[in-house]
Structure formats: structure tokens, C-alpha cells
Design brief:
mainly alpha; about 230 residues
Length: about 230
């Protein structure tokens, strides 16, 4: 008699494999921290904005647009670079004995992304609708946007964790989503809510990745995967 193979379980294990070493968390955490750094640079150093505006005056509006795109592409470039480093580390140490799998480009199922967008839109509309009943500051809208972005991102992490049965993402999603609510109190600054949001989520993910990597590294060394 042939033993029946549970293909769904094998597929799930393969998907979990990509997140078992914590490098995905580290990659996303670094990207978010860099986005916070770009945000900080633009908001706290107006000379950057003046420089870009001056480029537009000297060479046309397209020069300003290109400068902004280059600046905001830094986290994307860093993420791509981290992807190459991650693949190299996995090939040389982490996955040397167990074999490589192709990293998935779509990390969160589409229905979870749709739910996150729905929550973002509904929460933003409700926040604007009840603005007149709340004690709001000059930058209420920016704070509100950062709150609903945090909720949406939290839902995405929760959905990812449930879908893959990787429960640390559920915990991070809940903690980060709830903590994002506090951003509504940063209404006296254009920069505060955005900076806290980027850095907060980045540190949560970076810490998670480092903890997971630290936990699995001794096991890898004992199995002879690392020299």
C-alpha cells in the first residue's frame, strides 16, 4: 500500500520555510526604517525640499519629480539589495543542506490585501466624518492617515500569519495595529506621526527577525549547515 501524501501540508511547509529564519522580517524592517529616515530627512531638513524646488526652477518640473523619485526609491533599492544578501546567506549557510526554495513575490494573499484596503478606506472616511466631534489639531489628517495605515498593515500581518500558521505575525499585527491608534495624539507636528509609524513598525519587524535568527542559528550550526 502506498502512503497517502498530504500535498496541502507540504505546500504549507514550503511556504513557511521562507519565513523560518527571520530574514524576511529583517528585510522589511530595514526598508521601513529607511522610509522613516527619508521622511525625517525631508521634514526636519527643509533644505532638501528647497534644493528639489530649485532643481525645478533651473531645469524644469521634471527635475524635481526625478529627484523625489530617486529619494523615495532608496528603500526599494535597499530592499532589493537585502534580497540578494538574503539569498546569498541562505545559499551559503541557512539553506545549504536543506535546499533552496524560490522566494515568493506575493507575501500576502490578495483577499487579505483587499480587506486591508477596505479597512483603510472605511476608517479614513469615519475619521474624517467624526473630525468635528473630536479635539483635533492642525495635522489631524496626517495623524489619521498614519493610524489607518497602521491598522491596515496590522491586518495584513495578521492575515499572513493565519494563512501561513506563523503566529509571530499575528502577534506583531495585533500589537502594532493597537499601538498605531496612539498616533492620533500627534496632531501638533507634521512629522511626528509618520516618523513614529515607520520607525515603530520597522523596529518591531527587525526585532522579530533578529530573535528568530538568533534562535535558529545554533540549530543550523549543530546540523553542520554553518561553518
Amino acid at each position: 500500500m502506498f502512503e497517502q501524501v498530504d500535498t496541502k501540508k507540504i505546500i504549507l511547509k514550503t511556504k513557511q520555510y521562507e519565513f523560518a529564519d527571520g530574514l524576511r522580517d529583517i528585510q522589511l524592517g530595514i526598508a521601513l526604517i529607511l522610509m522613516g529616515a527619508v521622511w525625517f530627512g525631508l521634514m526636519y531638513q527643509p533644505s532638501w525640499l528647497m534644493f528639489m524646488i530649485q532643481l525645478g526652477r533651473d531645469y524644469g518640473r521634471w527635475a524635481t519629480i526625478v529627484a523625489f523619485l530617486l529619494l523615495f526609491s532608496l528603500p526599494v533599492v535597499a530592499t532589493a539589495g537585502m534580497q540578494r544578501i538574503m539569498e546569498s546567506v541562505r545559499r551559503r549557510w541557512l539553506w545549504r543542506e536543506t535546499g533552496m526554495v524560490k522566494s515568493s513575490r506575493i507575501l500576502v494573499p490578495s483577499h487579505i490585501n483587499i480587506l486591508a484596503v477596505f479597512i483603510f478606506i472605511v476608517a479614513l472616511i469615519l475619521g474624517l466624518r467624526f473630525q468635528s466631534f473630536l479635539k483635533t489639531g492642525d495635522f489631524y489628517l496626517m495623524s489619521l492617515i498614519m493610524v489607518v495605515v497602521g491598522w491596515s498593515f496590522g491586518v495584513s500581518l495578521i492575515g499572513l500569519g493565519i494563512n501561513l500558521k506563523v503566529w509571530r505575525y499575528v502577534i506583531m499585527g495585533v500589537i502594532g495595529g493597537v499601538a498605531s491608534t496612539a498616533l492620533i495624539f500627534y496632531q501638533s507636528s507634521l512629522t511626528g506621526a509618520g516618523l513614529l509609524s515607520f520607525l515603530g513598525w520597522g523596529l518591531i519587524l527587525l526585532t522579530s527577525g533578529l530573535i528568530v535568527l538568533k534562535r535558529v542559528w545554533p540549530e543550523i550550526r549543530e546540523e553542520g549547515h554553518a561553518g
